[in-house]
Amino acid sequence: MSNIPEGLSSTVGLQRNKYSRSRIILLWLGVLIISALAALGGYLFLEQLPDEMAAAIGAFAGGGIIAMICSTMMPEAFEEGGPVVGFIASMGLLVSLLLDL
């Protein structure tokens, strides 16, 4: 559920670039299928993974999510909110990291 805003933002970008509705749906179906296969592979092959390695993989994935959000959502937020948007986003990340301790 937490990825819906990012997905909607990406879909709007595809529509702006004149992708047809059917092509957008096919792209998202492809993402769904690849994600499901990757999840299955992770479940089957990484079940006995050491905790340190699992933490490193989680950190890498979290960094990818943050990079994706920043590249798709921050420019629009900066246009509408000004320079304070970067500070607020940084504080939000800091609070989330502190809450995770």
Detailed description of the structure:
The protein is 85% helix and 0% strand. The chain has 101 residues and is mainly alpha-helical. The chain has two domains: 1-48; 49-101.
Brief summary:
With 101 residues, the chain is mainly α. 85% of the residues lie in helices and 0% in strands.
**Count of alpha/pi helices:** 4
Weakly predicted, low-confidence segments: none
Biggest beta sheet summary:
none
- Total strands: the figure is 0
Terminus-to-terminus distance: 24 Å
Secondary-structure-derived class: mainly alpha
Descriptive tags:
mainly alpha, 4 helices, 85% helix, 101 residues, 2 domains
Helices and strands in order:
Blueprint: H1 4-16, H2 21-45, H3 51-81, H4 84-100
